[in-house]
Amino acid sequence: MISTIDDSKREVAAIFNSAIAAAAIGAAWELGLLDELRDHKKVDVHKFAKQHDLDSGSIQGLVTALAVVNVVERDHDTAVPGRLLDETYRNKSLFHWLALGSGGLFSRMQYVVRNENRKGSFYSRDPAAIAYACRDINLQHFDPVFWAAMDGLDYKFHSVVDLGSGSGERLMQTLDRYPGTTGIGIDVAGPAIKVATDEALERGFRDRLSFIEGDAREMVYCDEFARVDLLMCFMMGHDFWPRDNCIATLQRLRKAFPKARRFLLGDTTRILLDNPRSRHAVTEDDVPIFTLGFEFGHAMMGVYLPTMEEWEAVFAEGGWRCVKTHLIKSSYLSVIFELEHD
């Protein structure tokens, strides 16, 4: 009986400590500590804090939080890679998305779930932090499949639009890789637009790349879109839903970009909450990283997440034909649909 009680105490302590460590992982990445550990295999904690003008006591606490969950090991004031550093580093942006970008949402769930409060702007997230995290999420998880899809296009494109462009990194990489092309980024978040515009200017894209603050769900044709022959959208397609809204958005995009020969639509699909009728569904005993946070977070925001099968059922009515389905090989279920005008 005592053993059972002790085990329960340790398990509950692990839940509490992991909540702190999740935020610490995101912060350690943004501060450069995870890269320092990965690249040099050893970090003098006091020296790191001094070099980066960080509060030494706070950094000691951050390193301790990482040590508690085996991301690092400590020898007095020296930190070295722990057993879980490599896997944590691979998923660092997911922790950043959860604890830093979406922290304002999850810390207020007791307020957000009350129907009386669910009107107007009833939740808050940090759009700049979301863009920061999504930049690496794309790099680590979407990009290998994305570039393979791009290399497989059966035509040479000249102008590309990215809906929900965030930091603009995907567009800038695309323009680097395909000389002579131009791009337009469209995002609803003003702070993300500013970050992307500043980065584009710094990297020399002044004449090839521009950013527009706008809602991808409300696109209408304008002269700037006349030459666009490639459309892409990543990690925000779920904002098109519910179903009727999604079909209407797809139809508007069809009209707004009449010359777009391909539409690469990438997103994470629902596999856990609300008993999804999907061949990809998982149980509560086997939930992969990101899935619970992504699905629960969007449920609180009132955003419907479709299953793979629900996506597949709307393209024809929306005026598009799915010519290829590119599955993302990660622990959670993501996909890039390659669409063309129906």
CA-CA gap between termini: 66 Å
Number of helices: 14
H/E series, N to C? Answer: HHEHHEEHHHHHEHEHEEHEHHEE
Q: Biggest sheet: strands, sense, closure?
A: 7 strands, mixed
**Global morphology:** globular
CA-atom Rg in angstroms: 22 Å
Number of E-type strands: 10
Q: Could you tell me the strand content as a percent range?
A: 15-25%
Across the major sheet, the strand order is: 6-5-4-7-8-10-9
Structural class: alpha/beta
Name the helicity range: 40-55%
Low-confidence stretches: none
Description:
- With 342 residues, the chain is an alpha/beta fold.
- It is 46% helix and 17% strand.
- It is built from 14 helices and ten strands.
- A seven-stranded mixed β-sheet has the order 6-5-4-7-8-10-9. A three-stranded antiparallel β-sheet has the order 1-3-2.
- A hairpin with a 2-residue loop joins strand 2 (72-75) and strand 3.
- Helix 1 (2-31) crosses helix 4 (56-68) and helix 3 (45-51) crosses helix 4 (56-68).
- The N and C termini lie far apart (66 Å).
- The mean pLDDT is 94.
Note the topology.
Blueprint: H1 2-31, H2 33-40, E1 43-44, H3 45-51, H4 56-68, E2 72-75, E3 78-81, H5 85-90, H6 92-101, H7 103-106, H8 109-112, H9 127-151, E4 159-163, H10 169-177, E5 182-187, H11 190-202, E6 209-213, E7 230-234, H12 243-256, E8 262-268, H13 291-301, H14 308-312, E9 320-329, E10 333-341
Parallel strand pairs: 4-5, 4-7, 5-6, 7-8
Antiparallel strand pairs: 1-3, 2-3, 8-10, 9-10
Helix pairs in contact: 1-4, 1-6, 3-4, 6-9
